[in-house]
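Retro notes - structure team

What went well: the batch runner handled both jobs without manual restarts.
What didn't: labels got mixed up in the shared folder, which is why I'm recording both outputs here explicitly, each with its sequence directly above its tokens.

Job 1
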Amino acid sequence: MHHLRPLVEQLRGCRVVVIGDIMLDEYLRGEVSRISPEAPVPVLEVRSHDWRLGGAANAAANIQALGGAATLIGVVGKDEAAGILDERLAQQGIASAVVADPDRPTSKKTRLVAQQQQIVRIDLEKRSPISGTLADAIQRAIDRVLRDAQACVLSDYAKGVVTVEIARHAIDAARRAGIPIVVDPKQRSFAVYRGATVITPNLHELEAAAHGVQPFDAERAATSAMAETAGAALLVTRSAEGMTLYRPEREPFHVAAMAKEVFDVTGAGDTVVAALALALAARVPIEHAVELASIAAAVSVSKRGTSTVSPGELITAIDAAPG
């Protein structure tokens, strides 16, 4: 992996647009030492309270942390969470082309963690697909910011922003601009992402998109899914088994899992698409881009909670990698 070391500097300053479902991750951490007298539930005595960027915003944060220049497009509400999210974007230097909708809340996930163990997650969100003037505003933002971009990420969490129309508009705009577009998918049919450069499903998402390939086999399922994507590659993330790149009429390219210890997989997919898109923006060969993404993911899962990866951490991990 030492051949990747000089590539890290090439990521610096590359401009990537992230389009998708923006979330705010809230963490309440503490200790549980008793059961509530009101009901048979544990009482969490909170010791710390933290907010982090989630979903598409976490992908943008990872691009920024790795040395890139991220612009975020998505939808938030007009609420306290939107204000906190805006502050976090500014603190991390992420350019915002976010559209506010007073009729929907900012998507927020609140995690209660006791002794490093998550005991419950509370989701506040509205998942109805955007339409009308709101969708028009997102499309105008895409057209405006893609002019100066070197790559694009479509971060689909099925929260209503990445509709079929928005996905098509973003992919067509990226293709006209001649830049790669990386998709983190949630649609059951990958035909929605037809024309993308790389789609990054996990095994569960690939199985859902394989339209009944039985018994399930990743390579056969990838071949079936690629038939709908007009040449898009599939980078299938496989947890402890690493990740495999499938391309039409090419042998699969496999990278073993790099993580030595896994503390938390939250947001690891965002790290993968961020590193991959940033490397493609820097015109790094796709095989090397996949290797960089694998190492970045290994760093991410070694941390607790939604997290980012710095160039220094990436280089340290590269130096420690075998081979």
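Job 2
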Amino acid sequence: MSGFQAFLLKTNALALAIGVIIGTALGTVVNSLVNDILMPPIGMALGGIDFAQLKTVLKPATGGDPATEVAIRWGLFFNAVIAFIIVAFVVWQISRMLIKEEAAAPSKACPFCKEPNAIDASKCRACASAI
């Protein structure tokens, strides 16, 4: 068990698991935001359109059973695209806030090939010339 614990703590597996859990919760909140907060006023502004009900019927329901209807529900797809854009934007903002790039290690350029090398290097790692 200690080996598994060490694996979780040494790798990014724990961070990935936490990210998936938070992402799932964020997705639920954003879906509610899109479906319950954003789309009703947008639909009302566009003349009372309910995007969740927009569809192109390919085969009407038979026998009064709505489950037999074949339709392309492009309104639901439109809602999903908006939700995706919001989630992607929020995740991008969070990652910009939390993930900082490490400062580049100091280096010196090779006078011949201009490749960066460690400060204490005596030979270029690219062209093997003395620097």
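One thing worth noting from job 2: The two ends are 50 Å apart (CA to CA).
We'll revisit the folder naming next retro.
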